[in-house]
Amino acid sequence: MCKHVLNAQVSIRSPCCKKWFDCAECHAETADHPLLQRTEMVFACKKCKKAFRKEADEFEESDEYCPHCDNHFVIDALTPKPRLEVEGEDVRIDARMLKDERLPEEQPRTIFDVKEAPNKLG
What is d(CA 121, CA 111) in angstroms, rounded to the nearest whole number? Predict the structure, then answer.
């Protein structure tokens, strides 16, 4: 998973080291060389897991879709936004901070009438 682009639809194979990356920033963090740029790009769709090639200088609107499964991979990137949270703020993540506000029952629940039971026995 890419930590720079949250909704990456394809992986890109770098022409310099032949490794797969979700974005150019991932390549810059892990590789010790600059990214070699070519006009022919090799993609791997994350939906159908199949690879395909596209020419960058002849890129048209129809080329924005995977040729195998029609997944639209040219979309606006969602990047993570820094935010400050207090631990335990979201109940879906951490439910330990919830307070049980139920009141204890005064008497044990039963199907019998507890007040009249001593008069009926014996």
Answer: 16
The CA distance from 64 to 94, in Å, is: 40
pLDDT tens, 20-52?
998 888 888 888 898 888 888 898 998 899 999
The residue written with tokens 């439910």 in the block is: 95
Which two structure tokens, joined as six digits, stand for 19?
Answer: 């490794």
Coil, helix or strand for 64? helix
The string of pLDDT tens digits covering residues 2-14 is 788 888 888 989 9
Give the pTM.
Answer: 0.56
**Who's near 26: CB < 8 A, 6+ residues apart?**
2, 3, 4
For residues 91, 92, 96 and 102, what is the CA-based torsion angle, rounded to 10 degrees?
60
Contact 19, 26 (CB under 8 A): no
Q: Are 42 and 73 in contact (CB under 8 A)?
A: no
